[in-house]
Design goal:
10 helices; mainly alpha
Length: 306
């Protein structure tokens, strides 16, 4: 998709933003305050996505130790690492993209507002463009007046504060980068219209207030328990306690049942099976002795009769 086609798709949004700003200005707001109110309206519409973002970040923070362990285990195999992380996200019902939804949803509005303010500069609408005579024009470059530097200072401060609330699940290196970016972007933002910087500053202040409120109202996700074994949990960690329990239970049963088995089975064999066998042996011996005596008596009778 080319830039021209993207701008063509954003034209309806640009017209909508212009009508909203004109409507807010017509009811008594200055142009600068109209941008602030527009920003608040946009952020109110994004509250459902923001709630999903907060829950996603809390889940990422709760399962951070498991994810770090996966990263440590597969740090030399990038493909395997991505596969295991995707499996982990699916098992724990985590959507990493949810943390980016509010930012992505604001991007078209940011671009549309940029072109709206650029058209304001070409064809200024009727009415005062000032904000309490502090910002001379919301359509001019932010550095065209000394008040723009105040806006830049407030923007950097608000961006750092919003980063503090939104970077809870980030790694230390990523958090440092997010803290440095506002200072690096100053040279780019200095070419933006003052109204666009005002929009960005207002949305950052909304994020700060949102972070303060959600920390009190939205409960934190409980840390995961290790009772259920996942596909990446080593089997030895789960089987070792079980083996000890099985061995201990088997030993207890053997020690408790040992005397009964000896007294019942061995003595039973001696009294029930060995004794009849001895009787049979003794009976056979008596039969043989009787046969021998009968033989001797018969031979002696024949000798006497002759």
């Amino acid at each position: 998709m080319t830039v021209l086609s993207l701008l063509y798709l954003l034209q309806p949004l640009e017209h909508l933003l212009r009508h909203v700003l004109n409507g807010l200005h017509s009811i008594g707001f200055s142009w600068a305050w109209s941008i602030c109110v527009l920003t608040v309206l946009v952020r109110m519409l994004l509250v459902p996505l923001t709630v999903k973002q907060i829950h996603s970040m809390q889940n990422m923070q709760a399962y951070a130790p498991q994810m770090k362990e996966i990263q440590r285990k597969y740090k030399h195999d990038r493909q395997k690492l991505n596969e295991e992380l995707m499996k982990f996200y699916k098992e724990k019902n985590i959507n990493p993209a949810s943390s980016c939804l509010p930012l992505l949803a604001q991007f078209p509005i940011f671009i549309g507002l940029y072109y709206t303010l650029r058209n304001f500069a070409k064809h200024p609408p009727a009415g005062d463009l000032s904000w309490l005579h502090f910002v001379p024009s919301i359509a001019a470059h932010v550095t065209s007046h000394w008040s723009g530097y105040v806006l830049l200072a407030v923007y950097v401060t608000s961006q750092l504060a919003s980063t503090y609330f939104m970077s809870g699940s980030m790694q230390q290196s990523q958090r440092i980068i997010m803290y440095v970016l506002p200072f690096a972007f100053i040279f780019v933002i200095a070419r933006f219209p003052a109204g666009l910087v005002l929009y960005w500053m207002t949305t950052n202040l909304w994020t700060v207030g949102q972070g303060l409120i959600t920390r009190r109202l939205i409960p934190k996700v409980a840390p995961p328990t290790a009772q259920k074994r996942s596909s990446r949990t080593p089997a030895k960690e789960m089987e070792a306690p079980r083996r000890g329990q099985v061995v201990g239970a088997a030993g207890a049963r053997a020690s408790a049942a040992g005397p009964r088995q000896v007294g019942g089975s061995v003595s039973g064999r001696v009294g029930g099976r060995a004794r009849p066998a001895r009787r049979r042996i003794h009976a056979r011996a008596r039969d043989r002795d009787g046969a021998r005596r009968c033989g001797r008596d018969g031979s002696a009778g024949r000798g006497t009769g002759g």
